[in-house]
């Protein structure tokens, strides 16, 4: 495409291109060099005329995008992405380098944004991806075409690229485009004319092709073209989607075009440059003019020569960096295979399909795992563009940029994990920034589970910058001009409008994490008001964990959380009083929900007691030990309320244990569900506040013949269910396993079907190894009382009777080696194993 084709003998230079096509970009650059027009017109929003010169700044690195949004509704926005291999970007760079004016001629963003807001959901652009008002060469995928004769919203939408490829005998439009354009250098002299003729034939056949708004857009383009010709004559170059070339060459009157534009809706729009990514250029992102392989196209455009060899060298470098064994010999063989495949398939050069087939066969040995890495990192790519500081931006965006720079936290398109140590000032600042942005709805980072330390001074984040976050920042600008002021204002508003106690406690936690001290007084007043009015134990139980976490985080971050601690202790006291009666008479679903609340409160009270430096008393006197009666009178066990305040948490953990005792020993009518009683006993056992003998006694009572089988199965689920170590408890305590086994044998046949789902749900949560061990223990049966092993040692619970010293001795040398001990010089491994 080296010639300078004109629509007529004397007229403007119409360059019909494919958006984001490197072949089109090379051809446009060559055509502009040959013709040297006095002005360049580009398909895009005219509002960008004032900021287009920023594209020449050295800090402007594509991919970037023009972002236009409604001034009064930043969420109503549109993007016009430009990559380094986009024909429009090539035209802009040529014009700025030669000091030629650049003007955008598409429908103004003020109109297109207003029109998109009035479209019906069926006709509006897909919200999953960025809005791209400029009509792409391939408007939709062929699979999205509606049947002819349908309503206006469902009319046939034509994909010109697919139609031309099918006409040429290709089943893949991308492969056809590569063969016709990308693999032929800058193309022949008449390539632009040929493309224009093909589009004219398609429009004669399909009309507007299902794009009814194109008539309005093309009318505006023609008006702008007339203005340029009046000012510069016919020395005008137009770079637009090839689909629009026939319309720009039509003989129409200015009056007719203005009539089409009359009465269009309009909003006040603001426009700026924002960074973009190759990933968002891909078609799977929802972008209408997207391409399948932006990273590959970027390589084709910038490679000075031998693109296949250079590409496969990149692939080898990537795989070697990921510890795959790839050598230069692999690269040589992959190049040969790609060229051979291209010759066999009748292609002028090896394309993406041939190179990927060669990579799969030679470098990846047929595996899909490294191929997925190559596709994600190289074929699509993770490049993130950059925009100069002089570009117009909202105050909130500028403050965020300054903060990112001061914290050395650079946005990146590739997802990465960030480990933070909150004891370091920089890491603490990064944590505060990420939490404030999350509160504002800018989800640049999401919390992740740390692989290392689980201390509260550690945080792990997954970071990934998406272009759409620029819109979220613009939307958040209504709250303030800095990240701190905006997050504070939004937190105060949410605190006043929150409907539930749990919402306010979660908000208080987020305020502490983001160090929003200015919002805390408002949040605390709202929290105190709702806590005083809410009498639902479930709501209180939902609110307490977040509140206790806030107290803990405050300790780590140096925040004064005395007021939060008082509220937390007050909530805990109210739960202590209200939980026992709330557990009476619950059905199965209600009991399961209450069990979850009880577990969450148990963990929260443990944390709250630690944060208040509660002295631990160790194991409490248990029934049957001689220090207290064997039964627990409900009157003694019922917790007594205490006033919230300093030191109120001192005995909180002990009173919570007393409340659990009252639940575990409850029975009668109406009874507390077995699920609740079993879980209460288990929590006490795990905290070493319930002796093993007493736990066995409670299980014996729960599984006695007088208990209905479904209720007994429910108790078992509460005590050993949930996968939280219940299986190992049975493995290491054969008394409990024997009780369960004997009870299960005694269940009548008519009741067995009712209890089977509960038991299946309980035991299915165990690990495979635990289930196998339990099965072996049940099959073996209880160990004989007083049986002696080979060396006179009694049988250990959970193991076979006796000990085989010779088998045990076989592992002793390995164990000594692992422990760093010298081999036994006397060879007494057998005796040592027996001991």
From TrEMBL:
Residues 121-153, 609-650, 781-804 are annotated as: Disordered. InterPro entries: DUF5682 (IPR043737), LolB (IPR050458). Transmembrane segments: none annotated. Residues 121-138, 633-646 have a biased composition (Low complexity). It comes from the Bacteria. This is Uncharacterized protein. It comes from Streptomyces melanosporofaciens.
